[in-house]
Amino acid sequence: MYEKPSIQRLYTGLMNKFGSVPPKQRIRTHIDGVSIDDLVEEYGSPLFVFSERKIRNQHKRLRDAFAGLYPSVSFGWSYKTNYLKSICSIMHQEGSLAEVVSQMEYEKARALGIPGEEIIFNGPNKPMPILQRAVDEGAMIHVDHLDELDDLIFIAKKDKRQISVGIRLNLDAGISPQWSRFGFNLESGQAARAVERMYNSGHIRLTGLHCHIGTYITEPTAYGQQITKMAAFAQEMETRYGCNIEYIDIGGGLPSSARLKGTYLPPDVSIPPVERYAEVISDAMNAAFPHNQQPRLILEPGRAMIDESGLLITSVQARKRLADGTRSYVIDAGINFLYTSTWYKHGIEIDREVPGPSEHSVLYGPLCMNIDVVDEGISLPALDRGTRLIIGPVGAYSVTQWMQFIAYRPAVVLIDQQGTTHCIRGAEDLSDIELREELPAHVQIGQTKRPIAT
Ligand SMILES: *Cc1c(COP(=O)(O)O)cnc(C)c1O
């Protein structure tokens, strides 16, 4: 293909502000022993690929990190991070509870066979029918606001019963921005007043505390502060109301190895290992609770649990020079499948060795939207049409936040521990998009005369 030549400044080997040369282009031909070519040939491009080995190893790593440090630790799998049935099932096989934040997620967990008692029900919107179901099925309900508490009191009175609940707290753990929109504020006394209302009703008992301070928390000590405050609150409520706080749920928020935009150091340097978080968290729990009265500790890590297990294979569809001479590529997946591009600088590997110098390039997605940019500045050699780019980590949030806009969502494949591939969600076609649509008779083509355009 002829391309009008243009003069470009080359950045190869240039010293950057840390004095190192830019990283060499990373090549990847296989995922867990399966070749990229075979994957694309069988399932198409773009394609999400999950590694079962990585999922199980990471779950084990998080479990092991607490072993010997704190007696009773459970994980709640954050459905919103990735609620494909196969992914949730693996997490449950590894021992995780289900952590859900909506009616849809609650129904998904139940449909998968998870009993109510193993479901943690978080979230700011629990409409009456699903709240009633969660009460009936014994789910761990974490009250978010007073209107929800009133709904629970209403259910308890109507059904002439007691309901045990947890309460969601928000508090200052030394990180900003401080999330204050979920749950009841601790420092202002709002949370204590909510518990007072529970006990005044005579129908609601407090058995657990929950708090999720934010996401991508790179400072382990924030969890230490959070636990110290939660423990003081637990003891205060126990003294005041004679309740028994059976568990402390500290939420998720552990970072993954995905690189946030605007950070200079790579994540393997700037982010503490999960073992460090486990130490700080266990130390704070052990310091706050006497040895024989230690509540169960629950964690809900989402991205830290799944992000590294997922990759997205995409293909170069076209190459073009922008008006200012910048090289750019159109690839077959954009922000429709990589919502996380907004804040992640995704890692990008190519499927082959490409000779020649690298050049500052832009990667555009396939959407007819100006904001559809997968990478606004990446050093790449001249790629041929059809070159595969492997983008990752994308295991967290991508296949729940993906957007159905002008394109079919691609297949999702799981590679099991023997290296066998399984399609865990087929590629969509027109029937998926139109499944719920109705076309009233009077607007059907051919039913009425169409005016001839003049
Ligand atoms: C989203 C969410 C999680 C998981 O968050 P990560 O930052 O991905 O670990 C856990 N708990 C609650 C309540 C959440 O809303």
Overall morphology: globular
* Rg over C-alpha atoms, rounded to the nearest angstrom: 25 Å
Q: Mean of residue pLDDT?
A: 93
Counting DSSP E segments of at least 2 residues, the number of strands comes to 22
As residue ranges, the low-confidence spans are 12-21
The CATH H-level homologous superfamily of the largest domain: Alanine racemase
Q: How is the main sheet built?
A: 9 strands, mixed
Instruction: Give the names of the bound compounds.
Output: pyridoxal-5'-phosphate
Structural class: alpha/beta
Q: Would you kindly provide a written description of the structure presented here, covering whatever features stand out?
A:
The protein folds into 2 domains: 30-49 and 308-429, Lyase, Ornithine Decarboxylase, Chain A, domain 1, CATH 2.40.37; 122-300, Alpha-Beta Barrel (TIM Barrel), CATH 3.20.20.10. The protein is 28% helix and 23% strand. It has helices spanning 36-43, 52-66, 85-93, 103-111, 128-136, 146-158, 190-201, 221-241, 267-270, 274-288, 303-306, 398-401, 430-434, and strands spanning 30-31, 34-35, 47-51, 73-78, 97-100, 119-121, 140-143, 163-170, 184-185, 204-210, 247-249, 259-260, 296-299, 310-321, 327-331, 344-345, 347-350, 359-364, 373-380, 388-392, 411-415, 421-425. Strands 3, 14, 15, 17, 18, 19, 20, 21 and 22 form a 9-stranded mixed beta sheet that branches. β5, α4 and β6 form a beta-alpha-beta unit. α2 (52-66) packs parallel to α10 (274-288) and α8 (221-241) packs parallel to α10. Bound molecules: pyridoxal-5'-phosphate. The site of pyridoxal-5'-phosphate has 18 residues, from α11.
